[in-house]
Amino acid sequence: MIETFSLGEHRWMARALQLARRGFLTTRPNPRVGCLLIHSGAIVAEGWHERAGGPHAEIMALEKAGAMSRGATAILNLEPCGHHGRTPPCDQALIDAGVRSVVVAMEDPNPQVAGRGLQRLRDAGIGVRQGLMEAQAEALNAGFITRMRLGRPRVVVKLASSLDGRTAMASGESRWITGAAARADVHRLRGASCAILTGIGTVLADDPRLTPRDVPGLEDMPPPLRVVLDSRLRMSPQAAMLEQPGTTLVITASENAAARQALEQAGAEVAKVAATDGRLDPSAVMRLLGEREINDLLVESGAELAGALLQSQLVDELILYQAPHFLGGEALPLVDLPGLERISDRLRLKLTDSRMVGDDLRLQLQPVTGEA
Ligand code: AOF
Ligand code: ZN
Which ligand is nearest to the Cα of residue 109, counting in written order? Predict the structure, then answer.
Protein backbone atom coordinates (compact mmCIF):
# COMPACT_ATOMS: atom_id res chain seq x y z
CA MET A 1 0.00 0.00 0.00
CA ILE A 2 1.26 3.49 -0.81
CA GLU A 3 0.82 5.62 2.25
CA THR A 4 0.22 9.34 2.21
CA PHE A 5 1.78 11.60 4.80
CA SER A 6 0.94 15.10 5.98
CA LEU A 7 3.16 18.15 5.63
CA GLY A 8 3.70 18.04 9.39
CA GLU A 9 4.83 14.43 9.22
CA HIS A 10 7.31 15.33 6.48
CA ARG A 11 8.73 18.08 8.66
CA TRP A 12 9.01 15.77 11.66
CA MET A 13 10.70 13.06 9.62
CA ALA A 14 13.14 15.66 8.27
CA ARG A 15 13.90 16.53 11.91
CA ALA A 16 14.32 12.83 12.82
CA LEU A 17 16.84 12.48 9.98
CA GLN A 18 18.65 15.59 11.18
CA LEU A 19 18.86 14.12 14.70
CA ALA A 20 20.05 10.79 13.31
CA ARG A 21 22.82 12.63 11.49
CA ARG A 22 24.23 13.76 14.87
CA GLY A 23 25.50 10.21 15.17
CA PHE A 24 27.06 10.27 11.71
CA LEU A 25 30.61 9.69 12.92
CA THR A 26 29.90 7.76 16.10
CA THR A 27 27.25 5.02 15.73
CA ARG A 28 29.27 2.52 13.72
CA PRO A 29 28.70 -0.37 13.30
CA ASN A 30 25.13 0.60 14.16
CA PRO A 31 22.89 2.67 11.92
CA ARG A 32 22.18 6.35 12.48
CA VAL A 33 18.72 6.75 13.98
CA GLY A 34 16.65 9.71 15.18
CA CYS A 35 13.26 9.63 16.93
CA LEU A 36 10.59 12.20 17.73
CA LEU A 37 7.59 11.77 19.98
CA ILE A 38 4.62 13.90 18.97
CA HIS A 39 1.69 14.62 21.22
CA SER A 40 -1.29 16.83 20.33
CA GLY A 41 0.52 18.07 17.23
CA ALA A 42 3.68 19.15 19.05
CA ILE A 43 7.12 17.59 19.58
CA VAL A 44 7.34 16.40 23.20
CA ALA A 45 10.75 14.69 23.00
CA GLU A 46 13.67 14.04 20.67
CA GLY A 47 16.23 11.26 20.76
CA TRP A 48 19.06 9.89 18.68
CA HIS A 49 21.43 7.00 18.78
CA GLU A 50 24.95 8.09 19.60
CA ARG A 51 27.01 4.94 20.09
CA ALA A 52 26.78 1.19 19.70
CA GLY A 53 26.14 -0.21 23.17
CA GLY A 54 24.39 3.00 24.22
CA PRO A 55 20.61 3.60 24.19
CA HIS A 56 18.73 3.51 20.91
CA ALA A 57 17.02 6.67 19.65
CA GLU A 58 13.58 5.55 20.84
CA ILE A 59 14.75 4.91 24.39
CA MET A 60 16.34 8.34 24.67
CA ALA A 61 13.12 9.98 23.42
CA LEU A 62 10.85 7.86 25.66
CA GLU A 63 12.91 8.71 28.73
CA LYS A 64 12.69 12.42 27.99
CA ALA A 65 8.95 12.28 27.27
CA GLY A 66 8.04 10.37 30.44
CA ALA A 67 4.22 10.29 30.89
CA MET A 68 3.79 12.26 27.64
CA SER A 69 4.68 9.08 25.72
CA ARG A 70 1.19 7.73 26.37
CA GLY A 71 -0.93 8.30 23.28
CA ALA A 72 2.02 9.80 21.36
CA THR A 73 3.13 9.21 17.78
CA ALA A 74 6.74 8.13 17.27
CA ILE A 75 8.49 9.35 14.10
CA LEU A 76 11.63 7.40 13.18
CA ASN A 77 13.93 6.98 10.20
CA LEU A 78 14.35 3.24 10.90
CA GLU A 79 12.04 0.46 12.07
CA PRO A 80 12.33 -0.03 15.85
CA CYS A 81 14.34 -3.11 16.66
CA GLY A 82 12.51 -6.15 18.01
CA HIS A 83 15.52 -8.11 19.18
CA HIS A 84 17.97 -8.20 22.05
CA GLY A 85 21.28 -6.90 20.69
CA ARG A 86 23.66 -4.95 22.87
CA THR A 87 20.48 -3.34 24.23
CA PRO A 88 16.85 -4.56 24.78
CA PRO A 89 14.20 -4.32 22.02
CA CYS A 90 12.72 -0.89 21.26
CA ASP A 91 9.37 -2.19 19.99
CA GLN A 92 8.56 -3.47 23.48
CA ALA A 93 9.61 -0.15 25.03
CA LEU A 94 7.26 1.74 22.68
CA ILE A 95 4.42 -0.68 23.48
CA ASP A 96 5.03 -0.44 27.24
CA ALA A 97 5.08 3.37 27.09
CA GLY A 98 1.63 3.43 25.49
CA VAL A 99 2.68 4.97 22.16
CA ARG A 100 -0.35 5.00 19.87
CA SER A 101 1.11 5.23 16.39
CA VAL A 102 4.47 4.94 14.66
CA VAL A 103 5.74 6.39 11.37
CA VAL A 104 9.00 5.00 10.00
CA ALA A 105 10.98 5.85 6.88
CA MET A 106 12.15 2.29 6.23
CA GLU A 107 12.33 -1.25 7.52
CA ASP A 108 15.47 -2.31 9.38
CA PRO A 109 17.40 -4.52 6.89
CA ASN A 110 19.06 -6.33 9.80
CA PRO A 111 17.88 -9.96 9.34
CA GLN A 112 17.30 -10.11 13.11
CA VAL A 113 14.69 -7.34 12.71
CA ALA A 114 13.51 -7.18 9.05
CA GLY A 115 9.89 -6.20 9.59
CA ARG A 116 9.41 -8.12 12.83
CA GLY A 117 9.61 -4.95 14.93
CA LEU A 118 6.81 -3.35 12.89
CA GLN A 119 4.73 -6.52 13.02
CA ARG A 120 4.95 -6.70 16.79
CA LEU A 121 3.83 -3.07 17.03
CA ARG A 122 0.84 -3.84 14.78
CA ASP A 123 0.02 -6.93 16.83
CA ALA A 124 -0.07 -4.71 19.91
CA GLY A 125 -2.67 -2.49 18.23
CA ILE A 126 -0.32 0.35 17.33
CA GLY A 127 -0.95 2.12 14.00
CA VAL A 128 2.15 1.73 11.81
CA ARG A 129 2.88 3.56 8.58
CA GLN A 130 6.12 3.31 6.64
CA GLY A 131 7.89 4.79 3.61
CA LEU A 132 8.05 8.50 4.50
CA MET A 133 11.31 10.01 3.09
CA GLU A 134 12.64 6.52 2.50
CA ALA A 135 15.24 7.61 -0.07
CA GLN A 136 16.81 10.06 2.38
CA ALA A 137 16.77 7.43 5.13
CA GLU A 138 18.49 4.90 2.86
CA ALA A 139 21.15 7.43 1.88
CA LEU A 140 21.92 8.17 5.54
CA ASN A 141 22.62 4.50 6.33
CA ALA A 142 23.81 3.29 2.91
CA GLY A 143 26.77 1.36 4.35
CA PHE A 144 24.77 -0.38 7.07
CA ILE A 145 22.09 -1.33 4.55
CA THR A 146 24.66 -2.74 2.10
CA ARG A 147 26.25 -4.86 4.83
CA MET A 148 22.92 -6.18 6.02
CA ARG A 149 21.69 -7.00 2.51
CA LEU A 150 24.89 -8.23 0.86
CA GLY A 151 27.09 -9.26 3.79
CA ARG A 152 29.86 -6.93 2.64
CA PRO A 153 30.68 -3.26 3.22
CA ARG A 154 29.64 -0.43 0.93
CA VAL A 155 32.82 0.15 -1.03
CA VAL A 156 33.92 3.68 -1.91
CA VAL A 157 37.09 4.03 -3.95
CA LYS A 158 38.91 7.33 -3.65
CA LEU A 159 41.26 8.34 -6.45
CA ALA A 160 43.23 11.49 -7.20
CA SER A 161 44.68 12.36 -10.56
CA SER A 162 45.83 15.06 -12.91
CA LEU A 163 43.47 16.31 -15.60
CA ASP A 164 44.91 13.68 -17.93
CA GLY A 165 44.09 10.93 -15.43
CA ARG A 166 47.64 10.37 -14.19
CA THR A 167 48.60 9.73 -10.59
CA ALA A 168 52.39 9.79 -10.46
CA MET A 169 55.44 10.26 -12.62
CA ALA A 170 56.96 7.15 -14.19
CA SER A 171 59.62 7.36 -11.44
CA GLY A 172 56.88 6.93 -8.83
CA GLU A 173 57.17 10.54 -7.66
CA SER A 174 53.63 11.46 -6.62
CA ARG A 175 53.30 13.84 -3.67
CA TRP A 176 50.65 16.55 -3.77
CA ILE A 177 48.59 15.71 -6.79
CA THR A 178 45.65 17.66 -5.35
CA GLY A 179 45.43 20.72 -3.11
CA ALA A 180 44.89 21.14 0.63
CA ALA A 181 41.09 21.43 0.44
CA ALA A 182 40.79 18.10 -1.41
CA ARG A 183 43.10 16.46 1.12
CA ALA A 184 40.96 17.78 3.99
CA ASP A 185 37.91 16.34 2.22
CA VAL A 186 39.65 12.94 2.11
CA HIS A 187 40.23 13.12 5.86
CA ARG A 188 36.50 13.68 6.36
CA LEU A 189 35.79 10.68 4.13
CA ARG A 190 38.21 8.62 6.19
CA GLY A 191 36.54 9.78 9.40
CA ALA A 192 33.09 8.70 8.20
CA SER A 193 34.34 5.23 7.24
CA CYS A 194 34.52 2.11 9.39
CA ALA A 195 37.68 0.95 7.63
CA ILE A 196 40.26 2.16 5.12
CA LEU A 197 41.74 -0.35 2.71
CA THR A 198 44.94 -0.20 0.74
CA GLY A 199 47.33 -2.53 -1.06
CA ILE A 200 50.84 -3.50 -0.07
CA GLY A 201 52.19 -1.64 -3.13
CA THR A 202 50.92 1.65 -1.71
CA VAL A 203 52.29 0.80 1.76
CA LEU A 204 55.75 0.04 0.37
CA ALA A 205 55.75 3.15 -1.85
CA ASP A 206 54.18 5.78 0.45
CA ASP A 207 54.15 4.34 3.99
CA PRO A 208 50.72 5.97 4.68
CA ARG A 209 49.26 6.39 8.17
CA LEU A 210 45.63 6.01 6.92
CA THR A 211 44.20 7.94 9.87
CA PRO A 212 41.64 10.75 9.71
CA ARG A 213 43.33 13.95 10.81
CA ASP A 214 41.78 17.28 11.91
CA VAL A 215 38.21 16.02 11.62
CA PRO A 216 35.95 17.66 14.26
CA GLY A 217 33.63 15.21 16.05
CA LEU A 218 36.02 12.26 15.97
CA GLU A 219 37.84 13.10 19.20
CA ASP A 220 36.41 10.23 21.27
CA MET A 221 36.28 7.69 18.45
CA PRO A 222 38.78 4.95 17.77
CA PRO A 223 40.20 5.54 14.28
CA PRO A 224 38.78 3.45 11.43
CA LEU A 225 40.23 -0.04 11.00
CA ARG A 226 43.20 0.03 8.62
CA VAL A 227 43.29 -2.87 6.19
CA VAL A 228 46.25 -3.86 4.03
CA LEU A 229 45.98 -6.47 1.29
CA ASP A 230 49.35 -8.17 1.35
CA SER A 231 49.19 -11.59 -0.33
CA ARG A 232 52.85 -12.43 0.40
CA LEU A 233 53.31 -10.62 3.75
CA ARG A 234 55.81 -8.09 2.50
CA MET A 235 54.68 -5.43 4.98
CA SER A 236 57.38 -4.13 7.30
CA PRO A 237 56.78 -4.31 11.07
CA GLN A 238 58.15 -0.75 11.03
CA ALA A 239 55.35 0.57 8.77
CA ALA A 240 54.08 3.95 9.99
CA MET A 241 50.46 2.84 10.31
CA LEU A 242 51.44 0.28 12.97
CA GLU A 243 52.47 3.19 15.21
CA GLN A 244 49.02 4.79 14.99
CA PRO A 245 46.22 4.32 17.53
CA GLY A 246 43.60 1.76 16.57
CA THR A 247 43.88 -1.53 14.71
CA THR A 248 45.67 -2.56 11.52
CA LEU A 249 44.46 -5.74 9.81
CA VAL A 250 46.78 -7.37 7.29
CA ILE A 251 44.99 -9.77 4.95
CA THR A 252 47.17 -12.36 3.29
CA ALA A 253 47.33 -15.75 1.63
CA SER A 254 50.86 -16.37 2.90
CA GLU A 255 51.85 -19.25 5.16
CA ASN A 256 55.00 -17.44 6.27
CA ALA A 257 54.76 -17.89 10.06
CA ALA A 258 57.83 -15.75 10.84
CA ALA A 259 56.57 -12.76 8.84
CA ARG A 260 53.15 -13.15 10.43
CA GLN A 261 54.60 -13.24 13.92
CA ALA A 262 56.74 -10.16 13.27
CA LEU A 263 53.68 -8.19 12.15
CA GLU A 264 51.63 -9.44 15.09
CA GLN A 265 54.39 -8.44 17.48
CA ALA A 266 54.28 -4.98 15.92
CA GLY A 267 50.57 -4.84 16.83
CA ALA A 268 48.93 -5.90 13.56
CA GLU A 269 46.19 -8.48 13.24
CA VAL A 270 46.74 -10.94 10.41
CA ALA A 271 43.95 -12.82 8.65
CA LYS A 272 44.06 -15.32 5.80
CA VAL A 273 41.80 -15.49 2.76
CA ALA A 274 41.93 -17.56 -0.42
CA ALA A 275 44.04 -16.42 -3.36
CA THR A 276 44.02 -17.27 -7.06
CA ASP A 277 47.31 -16.92 -9.00
CA GLY A 278 48.80 -15.09 -6.04
CA ARG A 279 45.96 -12.54 -5.89
CA LEU A 280 43.65 -12.36 -2.90
CA ASP A 281 40.04 -13.08 -3.78
CA PRO A 282 38.33 -9.64 -3.55
CA SER A 283 34.95 -11.16 -2.65
CA ALA A 284 36.50 -13.14 0.19
CA VAL A 285 38.15 -9.95 1.48
CA MET A 286 34.80 -8.15 1.43
CA ARG A 287 33.04 -11.03 3.18
CA LEU A 288 35.67 -10.96 5.91
CA LEU A 289 35.18 -7.21 6.36
CA GLY A 290 31.40 -7.70 6.44
CA GLU A 291 31.86 -10.21 9.25
CA ARG A 292 33.92 -7.59 11.08
CA GLU A 293 30.89 -5.25 10.92
CA ILE A 294 32.46 -2.82 8.45
CA ASN A 295 29.60 -0.77 6.97
CA ASP A 296 31.56 1.81 5.01
CA LEU A 297 34.89 0.91 3.45
CA LEU A 298 37.10 3.56 1.87
CA VAL A 299 39.66 2.24 -0.59
CA GLU A 300 42.77 4.37 -1.04
CA SER A 301 44.96 2.31 -3.26
CA GLY A 302 46.98 2.23 -6.41
CA ALA A 303 45.83 1.50 -9.93
CA GLU A 304 46.00 -2.26 -9.62
CA LEU A 305 43.72 -2.77 -6.62
CA ALA A 306 41.28 -0.06 -7.73
CA GLY A 307 41.06 -1.74 -11.14
CA ALA A 308 40.66 -5.22 -9.65
CA LEU A 309 37.78 -4.08 -7.42
CA LEU A 310 36.09 -2.34 -10.34
CA GLN A 311 36.44 -5.45 -12.50
CA SER A 312 35.05 -7.60 -9.68
CA GLN A 313 31.99 -5.30 -9.52
CA LEU A 314 32.67 -4.63 -5.87
CA VAL A 315 32.71 -0.83 -6.09
CA ASP A 316 29.60 1.06 -5.02
CA GLU A 317 30.99 4.55 -5.48
CA LEU A 318 34.06 6.22 -6.82
CA ILE A 319 35.28 9.64 -5.71
CA LEU A 320 37.80 11.22 -8.02
CA TYR A 321 39.68 14.40 -7.23
CA GLN A 322 41.13 15.91 -10.38
CA ALA A 323 43.80 18.56 -10.21
CA PRO A 324 44.03 21.11 -13.01
CA HIS A 325 47.41 20.08 -14.39
CA PHE A 326 48.82 17.66 -16.94
CA LEU A 327 51.42 15.07 -16.05
CA GLY A 328 51.90 13.77 -19.58
CA GLY A 329 51.71 10.44 -21.29
CA GLU A 330 54.72 8.90 -19.52
CA ALA A 331 53.06 9.31 -16.13
CA LEU A 332 51.17 6.45 -14.46
CA PRO A 333 47.46 5.82 -15.09
CA LEU A 334 44.61 5.92 -12.58
CA VAL A 335 43.29 2.36 -12.86
CA ASP A 336 44.63 -0.85 -14.36
CA LEU A 337 42.00 -2.79 -16.26
CA PRO A 338 43.87 -5.75 -17.70
CA GLY A 339 42.19 -7.50 -20.59
CA LEU A 340 40.20 -4.45 -21.61
CA GLU A 341 40.85 -4.19 -25.33
CA ARG A 342 37.62 -3.33 -27.06
CA ILE A 343 35.61 -0.18 -26.63
CA SER A 344 32.57 -2.36 -26.06
CA ASP A 345 34.30 -3.70 -22.92
CA ARG A 346 34.74 -0.24 -21.46
CA LEU A 347 33.86 0.19 -17.83
CA ARG A 348 31.05 2.70 -17.66
CA LEU A 349 30.18 4.96 -14.76
CA LYS A 350 27.38 7.34 -13.97
CA LEU A 351 28.35 10.78 -12.74
CA THR A 352 26.21 11.51 -9.68
CA ASP A 353 27.83 14.71 -8.42
CA SER A 354 30.52 17.17 -9.44
CA ARG A 355 31.82 20.16 -7.58
CA MET A 356 34.96 22.15 -6.95
CA VAL A 357 36.94 21.56 -3.77
CA GLY A 358 39.52 24.33 -3.49
CA ASP A 359 41.21 24.43 -6.89
CA ASP A 360 40.37 20.80 -7.71
CA LEU A 361 37.38 19.07 -9.22
CA ARG A 362 35.59 16.42 -7.13
CA LEU A 363 33.62 13.88 -9.11
CA GLN A 364 31.33 11.29 -7.56
CA LEU A 365 30.50 8.32 -9.77
CA GLN A 366 28.77 4.97 -9.64
CA PRO A 367 29.69 2.02 -11.81
CA VAL A 368 26.96 1.15 -14.28
CA THR A 369 26.09 -2.53 -14.22
CA GLY A 370 24.28 -4.42 -16.97
CA GLU A 371 23.97 -3.78 -20.68
CA ALA A 372 24.08 -0.32 -22.22
C1 AOF B 1 16.55 0.96 16.78
N2 AOF B 1 16.95 2.20 17.20
O3 AOF B 1 18.50 3.77 17.50
C4 AOF B 1 19.15 1.79 16.42
C5 AOF B 1 18.70 0.53 15.93
O6 AOF B 1 23.36 -4.04 19.58
P7 AOF B 1 22.22 -3.06 19.65
O8 AOF B 1 21.24 -3.37 20.75
O9 AOF B 1 22.68 -1.62 19.67
O10 AOF B 1 21.37 -3.27 18.31
C11 AOF B 1 21.94 -2.92 17.08
C12 AOF B 1 20.92 -3.16 15.99
O13 AOF B 1 19.72 -2.43 16.27
C14 AOF B 1 21.41 -2.67 14.64
O15 AOF B 1 22.08 -3.68 13.94
C16 AOF B 1 20.11 -2.27 13.98
O17 AOF B 1 19.46 -3.39 13.44
C18 AOF B 1 19.30 -1.72 15.12
N19 AOF B 1 19.58 -0.30 15.32
N20 AOF B 1 17.43 0.17 16.12
O21 AOF B 1 15.43 0.56 17.01
C22 AOF B 1 18.20 2.64 17.06
N23 AOF B 1 20.43 2.20 16.29
ZN1 ZN C 1 16.26 -0.50 19.19
Answer: 1
